Amino acid sequence: MKFKLFESKAKAKEVLANNQPRLVRAGSKEICIVLSSETIFAFQNECAHMGERLHGGKINYLNEIVCPLHTYRFNIKTGEEAQGRCNSLKTYLVIESDEGIFIDC
Ligand code: FES
User: 3-class DSSP state for residue 9?
Assistant: First the structure.
């Protein structure tokens, strides 16, 4: 199912600060989105370790989101945990088109 995030890339860049995780809701799902170097990444907001909400985490210099609870690190593109200590995060496709920016979830 596709959910519209923004009317345009320009609007997204107005709203999203670079490398600042943000929570969005798509139906009953909580999804964390991050604008990083002109690209929007989307992944499950629930940490795959013990369920902390990741939008409160930070993005490090390796483009990983660092969970605020136990500092596990997940690649924002692939969802993989840096040291394989738990399952990967589910990632979502972000689609840019003339009609806007959508998330496929
Ligand atoms: S809950 Fe995220 S690292 Fe433990």
Answer: helix
Can you give the residue ranges of every domain in the chain? 2-104
Q: How far apart are CA 37 and CA 73, in angstroms?
A: 19
Give the model's pLDDT for residue 62: 97
Q: Which CATH class for the 2-104 domain? A: mainly beta
Residues 43, 74 contacting (CB under 8 angstroms)? yes
The reported pTM is: 0.96
Answer yes or no: is the C-beta of 48 below 6 A from any ligand 1 atom. no
Centre of ligand 1 to C-alpha 6, Å, is: 29
Which protein residue has the closest C-alpha to ligand 1 atom 1? 50
